[in-house]
Structures are given as C-alpha cells and as structure tokens.
Amino acid sequence: MNIISLTRENESLIQQAAQLMMDAFHEHWPDAWPSLEEGLQEVNEMLDEERICRAAVDKEGNLLGIIGGIPGYDGHVWELHPLAVQPGLQGQGIGRALVEDFEEQVRLRGGLTITLGTDDEDNMTSLSNVDLYENLWDQIYNIRNLKNHPFEFYQKMGYIITGVVIDANGIGKPDILMSKRVK
Predict the structure, then answer these.
(1) Strand 77-85 versus strand 113-119 pairing type
(2) Which of 45, 64, 80, 111 has its CA 20 to 30 A from that of 71?
(3) What does the DSSP 8-state code read for residue 152?
(4) What are the backbone dihedrals phi and psi of residue 155, each rounded to the nearest 5 degrees, phi first?
C-alpha cells in the first residue's frame, strides 16, 4: 500500500474516490453522498489547494481509502473530513495508516490540533435518542458503542471526545466532536 496526494490530474482515482464516498457511507449515513455526482463534488472540494487530500492505493493503483483535511484557525487546527475505506477492506489497517499519514501532513503544515465530527444518526451510541441537555458531560463520559460506531476507532488513535453538537442531524441525532493534539 502507498499513500499519495490525490491531484486533479488523476481522473481514475477521482472517479474511484467519488464511488467510495457513496459506498463507504451508504449503510449508516445514506444521505451523506447518495449519488456519484455528489461524491464527485465532495472529492473536487477536497482537492482545493489549501486542503489536504491523501489516498491509499494498492500496487495496481486501485483506491483503498481516502482522507481529507480542512484548515482552520490560521492553520493551527485542521478538520479531518472525510475518512473512507473500501467497505470490504475495513479493519485491515488502511484507515489507521491514512490517519497517521494525515497527522504527519498536518504537522508538516504547522498544525497543532486535528478535530473531527462523527455523526450518530443511526442509534449507534448511547448518546443517540436521549436528552443530552441533561447531564451532558456524564453522558459523554459514560458513552457506549452500541453498533460499531467509529468514535472508538478514533479513540484508539488518540482522539478524545471534546463535545457534541446536540440534535445536529435531527432530534436525538448528535454529532460527536473529537480532537487530538499533533504537535
């Protein structure tokens, strides 16, 4: 596996990335990128000059996964958005390698912190379908993963929950905010 910068010149990988956006998020977040056109739009945004866009590819040049980053706070903080790995290849270390590479890319650009949001629209954690306005920090502290939500993957990578956006995706459907210092 190689991790490379995705550029506008690589039409084949761009097409594969757009398809991956649909495939990787379809099960739990079907409205994220429901069409190839919307996947292409997201990938093209990821290719903006100020952003980070990295791709994991196999020896034949097939896309295994993709990760993107958006700078904020004068480049001190980067938002990890999105991370996608081919569904049949998840759990094989591709996501971990992409996140580690992304963290290095952020460090090289002088970034201090990475943030991310990981939605819970599908009752995947104990933060879903409850009143988070009551004892919010206790509920965050006692979060349980009910259906293989990605927050635990990020915790294993050293990210901590720094908050939630209550009702971000509708009543009882929060966005879990996570961060990691990388400097």
Answers:
(1) parallel
(2) 64
(3) H
(4) -60, -40
Contacts for 98 with CB less than 8 Å, ≥ 6 apart: 3, 54, 56, 65, 66, 67, 83, 85
CATH of the domain at 165: 3.40.630.30
- pTM of the predicted model as reported, rounded to 2 decimal places: 0.94
CA torsion angle for 106, 63, 86, 160 (degrees, to 10)? 0
Per-residue pLDDT averaged across 150-179, rounded? 97
Picking from 73, 91, 111, the residue at the C-terminal end of a domain is 111
The domain in which residue 97 lies consists of 1-111
Model pLDDT for residues 108-140, shown as the tens digit of each residue: 999 999 999 999 988 999 999 999 999 999 999
Contacts of 74 (CB under 8 A, 6+ apart): none
- Inter-residue contact 77 to 59 (CB < 8 Å): no
121 and 171 Cβ atoms separated by less than 8 Å: no
Q: Give the pLDDT mean for 26-50.
A: 85
Which residue matches tokens 């977040």? 29
